[in-house]
Amino acid sequence: MSEQSAQEGILDFLAVPVLRVEEGTGQVLSANAAARALPFSLEAPAPGSVLDETGAPLPPERFPVRRAARGEPLEGALFRWKTPQGDRFLVVHSRMDRSRSPAVATVSFQDVTQWRRTEEDLLRALGARDTFLSVASHELKSPLTALQLVLERLQRGARRDVGFSGAQLAERLEPALRQVRRLGVLMQNLLDVSRARNNRFDLERERFELGSLLREVCEHFTEQARQAGSVLTLEDCLQVQVHWDRMRVEQALTNLVTNAIKYGAGGPIAVRAELRGGMVSLQVMDRGAGVAPEDRERIFNPFERASSGHRGVSLGLGLYIVREITRAHGGSVELTARDGGGSCFTLRLPTEAAQEGYE
Fold first, then answer.
1. Which helix (H) or strand (E) holds 206?
2. CA angle 200-206-211, nearest 5°?
3. For residue 19, which phi and psi values (nearest 5 degrees)?
4. Which CATH class is domain 206-350?
5. 120 pLDDT band (50/70/90 cuts)?
6. For labelling alongside 123, which of 27, 147, 223, 343 has CA 20 to 30 A away?
């Protein structure tokens, strides 16, 4: 067996793709089994299919094999390959053997796609955490500041021995109570997230008529929607008995309706319910700017928001809680775009909620 054949046999045992390239010409003299098994080309990739670390397309003369053939050392250079199966991240090493003529460069390609995606996920999670801490401090500080102002105003009145009538006192205390309720909602949301992440999202199931719950939610938010310039309507009020945690489903619907009011751009908002084969579909629809396709799954994660383009401050917990409530009932939630613009959130729940917790 020749020395070259022996080397090629050894390379075939490697799990990492390896090419042997002739200096100058760039001709591939051999490719090991791992390289031959790849569904894309290492030696002659299509123009625009190889990108550098910044995501900029490389001209053909900067392709790894071409550089290795010119004798350029590649020590852990990262390249991004665009393939029909998705982007792949490859770390390339090369070494020129000048003990023979012509010289031969050995080029290895290590696939670090999974590592890269994990890194990106971690960076995204860290970014979401930092955003959450910033927003949470703001959300908690605002009602506390308002509450402090109300109490200080009452304290000053008491020191001046200013008497308040019952109506005056109730009027002055209402802002304080409103901020206390706001703090209560924030604390409940944080507690719900903790329970969901620890698989302790227990349900207190009861039988009730769904139509009554839908009417209550819509009636509660009619005025708030009107103040935002929207008309909130209940379509197809389904009369069906369900076995759910009423409070939790009301919480999920409340989150969706308040989101629709907040981001619906003053357009009409509709709530609809349908029954199909033991599954109830609850839909909340708006005519707002909608959500980009790439964000439609991500926004159901904790501390995530659709985009920086959405005005206002939010902890990014509402849709995550909606998803966990739905899962706890053995159902699912989906966000789709509406024809003509806007969003449609659909909860699909079995009329008989699962009797056990969820994983």
1. strand 206-209
2. 115
3. -120, 145
4. alpha beta
5. confident
6. 343
